[in-house]
Amino acid sequence: MQRLAQRTIPLVDLRAQYATIADEVEEAMRRVIASSAFVHGPFAETFEREFAAYCGARYCVGVGNGTDALLLALRALGIGPGDEVITTPLTFTATAEAIVLNGAAVRFVDVDPLTRNMDPTQLEAAITPRTKALLPVHLYGLPADMRAINQVARGYGLAVVEDAAQAHGAEFEGRRAGSLADVACFSFYPGKNLGAYGDAGAVVTDDPALAERVRRFADHGRTTRYEHDLVGVNSRLDGLQAAVLSVKLRHLEAWSRRRRELAAWYDAALADLPQVGRPSVPAGVTAVYHLYVIEAERRDELLNYLHAHGVAAGIHYPLPLHLQPAYAFLGIPRGTYPVAERLAERVLSLPIFPEMSEDDVAYVAALVRAFYRAR
Ligand SMILES: *Cc1c(COP(=O)(O)O)cnc(C)c1O
């Protein structure tokens, strides 16, 4: 490896992306500032229309962040104390927070070892008379098996909520994330595939009554300016974020294509390494590679090696949720979800972002190869 010139490769590079769209973004932000449409308003409405259309859904309600999108979607479905919601333990903590903070009980099922997403074959054993909804996550930008999940849900009369925070534009059997269940929740956190310049999120659905309940709850339960028919919260999309998102949405398809191209280069460069498991994409699915996640032998050593050579690899996520201190109150012992637990010990996220070059991928892959060759 000493022969490769050292590079510095971040996990994502938002400054490099900004350089490609600076004129468009600055012009859009100037228009918001000149009109003072700072909280919700016309720029938010425009983005909501555009993003609903992009997802292939009828309604999009812009909210403050992706966590609120999940919270508000479950709330609008009427989920609360006494109810159970089933999700996956291999996800960001926000997925389960939304269940717990609504007063409902979080239940997990293990993940599928190939897709790393909710394993639909385990759902029936986890469903009880209190179960109200299934909350699959399209982890790393790969859609969950929505055909099987929706089929189970129909059989038991359950709602299905997509956590699509990592999956803007991902497709399952020809339809995009956001149109694959009763309601979908998106995050536009800056590092997400479609990211704002601050916090933002959205709830997407075909159900007009559900969209209206989310909108009202997210805006102080207000019917008119100072009439409130329920106790709500303040979680609205702001105009500056909406304007940035409208600009970036125009580039999203090209960025997703580029992510798939980068992933294919990684796939080819790592194909013959027995120590490395690569992401697998089932037939009928189009991934958007929010992250390119390998499963690696001696993962932590490899991570340190990559860091020492300038590559900002990461781990998503080092602990499945049932083993996090925050969820210790659930009393779920280690060993309960063996696939998620094994993945948490082996997953490693290699840098992937649209502005990366083929050379960057080659450099990272060469480091991974050198690490295993040397040992
Ligand atoms: C980012 C993320 C969220 C939360 O979104 P925020 O906008 O950060 O609140 C929820 N679920 C998953 C899977 C995420 O990756």
Characterize the structure shown.
With about 375 residues, this protein is an alpha/beta fold. It is about 40% helix and about 15% strand. The chain contains twelve helices and 15 strands. The strands form four sheets. The chain has a seven-stranded mixed sheet, sandwiched between helices. It has a three-stranded antiparallel sheet with strand order 7-6-13, with no helix packed on it. Strand 10 and strand 11 form a beta hairpin. Helix 1 crosses helix 8. The longest helix has 22 residues. It is globular. The mean pLDDT is about 95. The structure holds pyridoxal-5'-phosphate (PLP). The site of pyridoxal-5'-phosphate has 15 residues, from helix 3 and helix 4.
Quick synopsis:
The chain is α/β, with parallel strands linked by helices. The protein is 39% helix and 15% strand.
Explain the layout of strands and helices:
Layout: H1 14-35, H2 41-55, E1 59-63, H3 66-76, E2 84-87, H4 94-101, E3 105-108, H5 123-126, E4 131-135, H6 146-156, E5 159-163, E6 171-172, E7 175-176, E8 183-187, E9 201-205, H7 208-218, E10 222-224, E11 227-228, H8 239-249, H9 252-270, E12 276-277, E13 285-286, E14 292-296, H10 299-308, H11 338-346, E15 347-350, H12 358-373
Parallel strand pairs: 2-3, 2-4, 4-5, 5-8
Antiparallel strand pairs: 1-9, 6-7, 6-13, 8-9, 10-11, 12-14, 14-15
Bound molecules: pyridoxal-5'-phosphate (PLP).
The site of pyridoxal-5'-phosphate has 15 residues, from helix 3 and helix 4.
